[in-house]
Amino acid sequence: MSKFRSNGKREMPELNTSSLPDLIFTVLFFFMCVTSMREIDPIVDVTTPVGTQLEKLENKSLVSYIYIGQPIDKYRTQFGSGTRIQLNDKFADVTAIHDYVAQKRESMHEYDIPFMKVSLKIDENTKMGIVTEVKQALRKAWALNIVYSGNPATK
Amino acid sequence: MGKSSRKVPGLNASSTADISFILLIFFLVTTSMDTDTGLPRRLPEWDPNALEEEVQIRERNIMTVYVNSNNEILCRKEIIDISQLKDLAKEFIANPEDKMNMPAKEEYEIPGFGTVYTTVKHVISLQTDVATQYAVYFKVQDELTKAYNELRAEWAQRQFHKRWEDCSADQKLYARGMYPSKISEAEPKEYGQNR
Fold this sequence. Notes:
The complex is a heterodimer. By secondary structure, chain A is of the alpha/beta class. Chain A contains four helices and nine strands; from the N terminus they run αββββαββαβαββ. Chain A has helices at residues 20-34, 73-79, 96-106, 128-140, and strands spanning 44-45, 50-51, 55-56, 63-71, 84-87, 90-92, 117-122, 145-149, 151-152. In chain A, β5 and β6 form a beta hairpin. Chain B has a domain at 55-185. Chain B has four helices and eight strands. In chain B, the strands form two sheets. A five-stranded mixed beta sheet of chain B has the order 4-3-2-7-8, covered by helices on one side. In chain B, strands 5-6 form a two-stranded antiparallel sheet. Chain B starts with 15 loop residues before the first helix and ends in a 10-residue tail after the last strand. The relative contact order of chain B is 0.13. Residues 190-195 of chain B have low confidence and may be disordered. Classes of the chains: A alpha/beta, B alpha/beta. At the A-B interface, α1, β3, β7, α4 and β8 of A face α1, β1 and α3 of B.
């Protein structure tokens, strides 16, 4: 008998999983922190144009969104395929932008109001006519910081 | 007294992992990490009284970029290709050869940096038709932004001998002061037609 040969059956030591919950909790907390519930479902089709000089939008709580595009298939029969504006969860008219901005402003902290931004998510096939109207409405509503939303070019 | 040493049975924690897994999966599904990116712009203030008066800008200081309803780009009344726009804009903004039809240079003080000699009064006027496609407009905005960004990076390279990414926040601010973004979006001529 060699002294290196072990005697009898060898058992695989059991893996200690007591730290597994801690590990998963850590990942869980990470996701809980970064998560932001999707607030609205888009009801217009928006494919934002591709750009190369885009900047990241910081501080999501300061950003309001305006979607412009054709209604999604579900609403085509009801609303046609003309370009529509979406505010919150509904189709809206240009005249509603003023109230929308006012309502968003209301829900913000006073010291955040000057930094309010409006992100324009506009479909690339939209005509400039409606975009200009929206911009004029935003000017009248005193929401001057806008962002033309775009897709980063993938290389 | 009965038995003095009674042991507290250990809590079976083997399902904690499962519970936290369920929570984890819930947050994984609901999370949306898409960061919004875009081109930030500032709209001019709305002043109903100022609508009538045209702002007088000397012709050499203004570069008109007009995108017509056929999505053709006219830069200073000539049809150009989108690929030419950036270089034209760069030449216009910087005016390196002091041409007479390009913006006049003036002494201008950048706070914290000092006095520079640059084209402070240039304006790029971006005009569109009601039927212009948004994608083309966006592309033009993108190219103009690129022109500014490249000029700033080149200037920073000459001044501080650093690449743009390595510049400090202050240095970037000086570069922005050297070439401030002056893209004006003209008042629309027609309203609400041809949606």
